[in-house]
Amino acid sequence: MSSKVLLLVGLFLAMALLISSEVASAKELDSLMAAADTMVADTVEEVTEEAMVAVAVEEATEAMEEDTEAVEEVTEAVEEVTAVAMEGITEDETQN
After folding, report:
1. For residues 82 and 84, what is the distance between their CA atoms, to the nearest angstrom?
2. How do residues 14-47 score in pLDDT, each as one tens digit?
3. How far apart, in whole angstroms, are the C-alpha atoms of residue 84 and residue 91?
């Protein structure tokens, strides 16, 4: 009978060891999952920041292009006014 009791105690201890090992593995898995969640959150944050910068750069580029077009229009207008003024000066000189 004592050998049966020892066998049962041994089985109980083996089961307890197995259960504690599984609990430790589960805790390790939880910490790995938490680390993975943190990495994913950090990556999402970085990608979001990069996307916001890209949008800002695109908007700044569009504004710069609009400003360039406005400068070109003003330059053309100044050139036209200058040409008309030069024609007027030339006509005045010819008449005198």
Report:
1. 5
2. 888 888 888 888 888 889 899 999 999 999 999 9
3. 11
